[in-house]
Amino acid sequence: MSQEQLSSETGVSNCDIRLCRLDDGTLLIDMKGHWVIDNTIPDRSQISNFLESSQPIHQIKIQSSDIKRWDSVFLIFIIYIKKLCKDRGIECRTDELPQGVPNLLRLIAAVPEVQGLRKEKTKKSVLFRLGELTLLNYANFCRQLEFLGELCLSFKRMLNRTARYRSSDVWLMIEECGPKALPIVTLISILVGLILAFVGAVQLSMFGAQLYIANLVGLGMAREMGAMMTAVIMAGRTGAAYAAQLGTMKVNEEIDALKTMGISPMDFLVLPRVVALVLMMPLLCLYADFMGILGGMVVGVGMLDLTFVEYYTQTKAALGMRDFNVGLFKSAVFGVLVAVAGCMRGMESGRSSSAVGEAATRAVVTGIVWIIVSDAILTVVYNALGV
Amino acid sequence: MSYGPVVIQRNLDFNICRGEVFIIMGGSGCGKSTLLKHLIGLIRPASGEIFYEQEDFWKVDQVDRDRIIRKTGILYQSGALWTSLTLSENIALPLLQYTQLDKNSVDEIVSMKLALVGLAGFENYYPSEISGGMQKRAALARAMALDPEILFFDEPSAGLDPISAKRLDDLILELKESLGATIVVVTHELASIFAIGTDSVFLDTDTKTMIAGGDPKLLKEQSCDPKIRSFLSRGMEN
Fold this sequence. Notes:
The complex is a heterodimer. Chain A is of the alpha/beta class.
């Protein structure tokens, strides 16, 4: 803001500086005009150039009685001149600064910078950063193991009925990840069934074996795709939500409040979420299986001229309880993984808004990676067991 | 002012003059912060007008509203610093957005503002790395970044130790003197109210309207309303 010493002026309002060397070795700096942020401030190198010139300067005198308006840019200019003088051991006289400026300058210098606290952004070598990253990842890994261990203890407490949580929270979570997820699971599963059927249709019709579309879709959905696609959907939907909820609670110190009240955040927050997802995932998977078969039926009946009865009978013949069980067990495992990934990333989150976003992203990525890896492992295990 | 059907305050009518330190005070929940949010354009009044000099704030274009808001600086109750930016980046943001200054000048102004609030050297710290009181002061430095004509403070002394609160009062007085800024403060810190206030308005929770105004020191002595006298003497009077 500015202090207007005359009535407001319109029109051109520049700021001006004039340097004049007096006979007694004093450099007179005459500043006049409107020294405000909107104007272009004169180049300050002319002052240092003057000081570099052959004739020595013993003193700098700042004259500013002609200043009409001033604000921060004027202040930093004065500070710059004073610093210049201090560095060269020259005296700086500021007799007639505009009203208010001396007080502000005094306030600015009042609390000196505490030494050693300034953080500089230093460039670190690649090796340093690699080492730092390794140590960080190792620490993260240890923390994750700790989290899993705590979760197991929490489960044990739940089975002993000594865990402290609200059953209404469990029902709330069940509603969130069960019925509310049905629309998107429906959509995606029907489309996945459709796509499976489509992909197989071309090949199978070459052999006149269109009917086996039912096998393809049925087995594909029941054994694999139902569980996997549902799990990926839930990782994006519910895993991210868990991470964001817990991350924001961390920022608001709500988790600290639970701890200091003697309630384990693991029991109160994580357990209901994991339990809810584990219970809902197999049900959603089953639903997805049927929706997928329906999608395949649309292609079979619409494109391949099968009848509903043919498709239905073939599907029934191809699938057995074992196939469904394989998928359901996988989905239960995926449910645990998605919930754990979400809650873990949420509890690890930092305390800024971007940290919560980052936690949600990492929850989804971690969840999906764990889903695929465990899917591969389970497939091998099933194969070995002859299931 | 209302939130939906619930009226918070009604029939508010007051002027804030240039160069004053205007205190908005009242009991808890009377709507002080809400009133402030109305003044700075975050909430539209349920009925009535807000004038900045001669301009009706809500009748002019968005462009003019932005221009008016740019002349103000706001200190929010919990600082409201952007947590993913360093203190330096926080204060530099308005400067970079609204001026043509080069980076060096912006850095110098940022350092100067931080020094003004006693945080010299903390340029590269993130808000989560400094204490609550320091965050408040950094937020004040940001409010002052563009040397605004009007400053709005929402509970500035909340969370500050007594020395910092006194320093803040001194700084507010300096800003009034040096920059000629008009300052609107929402507070119930009595020490600050008497130290810096030159005009005020008292909002009442029960009657949901303003019941007094004027210099707080005069109010304490001469007000007819026992509620106000009690408030201003910290409940000592009966």
